[in-house]
């Protein structure tokens, strides 16, 4: 590692599997920071992530050696993970730490074209787990269907919430993300009680459920996050046939994880079309301010600042970004400039009102338009690229001369 004081990191090139869960638990036990890699990512992107993370090694399943060799920097050890069919338990004392070391490092879209690393400490996830076990949903053990990509922060919430409460975790077959009828089969067959879904997947699941007349009989909680929740007719109709199920709307960027929540229960016909993002979770502080940093009145849209236990400089190797994205509020501590716009209503509920920068969300994925433009600039015949969001799609374009057009289409 270039910085001897940096946390020890281990990259995990693993699909949803028992091996991945065991590797996460082992890393946490040994005070090592997990860097989950999505095998579906382009090789160039994985290479950029690994060069920034500087992991001690890359963990993989048997058969993935060639894939990892194509993306891992030279000199990084690659270890194959196998689980013995039967092996004696070996006690392993937890390495001491103060809760502030990174539990995991995730990489999000960067405006310069290079993904940016975000360190998230133990204390952030522990705070969320305590809140969720006491105030945020099902108490005790629950059968949970893991769905999120392992490179998303929600996957840690799915896995650790279930294991820490003694529940049963069903790992996703990635094909189910594209085959919603098959996911509906799984929810019923496995007796799933809790499900975390990005909004787009929730909408598609509800549409299929209503059309196929499929209503998982044991489902009690659906937690959605990642984009603005919209209670469409399909969502209302599906939950109307799930009278024991509640819909939770969670909000929080990767940098802080979940910081607010709203629960929707009762008659779905009474749910607002665009529900609020709710109230702060335990130990989170939310402020809506104007351009000068002063609080705005209820109902007025402003910039959303996130403070409390989970607000701490987190960008890997980027002191300037840490300086600009975090600000000290006199008497209240450090706050993260989320880049989101919001307002507070007269009941104290926070509402999401969009972004104040060039970041967008596509199917729950954060995407900086600058990263799209940087990728376009790598093409030798493209100059002055630009991009914007058009409904649910990202639309890039560029200025082109007639000779360039002819050369590119001939």
Q: What does this protein structure show overall?
A:
InterPro entries: AMP-bd_C_sf, AMP-dep_synth/lig_dom, ANL_N_sf. Pfam families: AMP-binding. It comes from Mycobacterium kansasii. This protein is α/β, with parallel strands linked by helices and 410 residues long. It has three domains: 1-86, Rossmann fold (3-Layer(aba) Sandwich), CATH 3.40.50; 119-358, ANL, N-terminal domain (Rossmann fold, 3-Layer(aba) Sandwich), CATH 3.40.50; 359-409, no CATH class. The chain is 27% helix and 29% strand. It has eleven helices and 22 strands. The strands form six sheets. The chain has a seven-stranded mixed β-sheet. Strands 14, 15, 16, 17 and 18 form a five-stranded antiparallel β-sheet that branches.
Short synopsis of the structure:
The chain is an alpha/beta fold.
Q: Which residues form runs of ≥5 with pLDDT under 50?
A: none
CATH superfamily of the largest domain: ANL, N-terminal domain
Instruction: Count up the domains.
Output: 3
Overall morphology? globular
User: How many angstroms separate the termini?
Assistant: 48 Å
| Structure class | alpha/beta
Number of helices: 11
Strand order of the largest sheet: 8-7-9-10-11-12-13
Mean pLDDT: 88
Sheet-strand content, in percent, reads 25-35%
Top CATH class of the largest domain? Alpha Beta
Proper CATH architecture of the largest domain:
3-Layer(aba) Sandwich
User: How much is the radius of gyration in Å?
Assistant: 22 Å
Helix content: 25-40%
Protein name: AMP-binding enzyme family protein
Pfam families: AMP-binding
GO molecular function: phosphopantetheine binding
GO cellular component, one term: cytoplasm
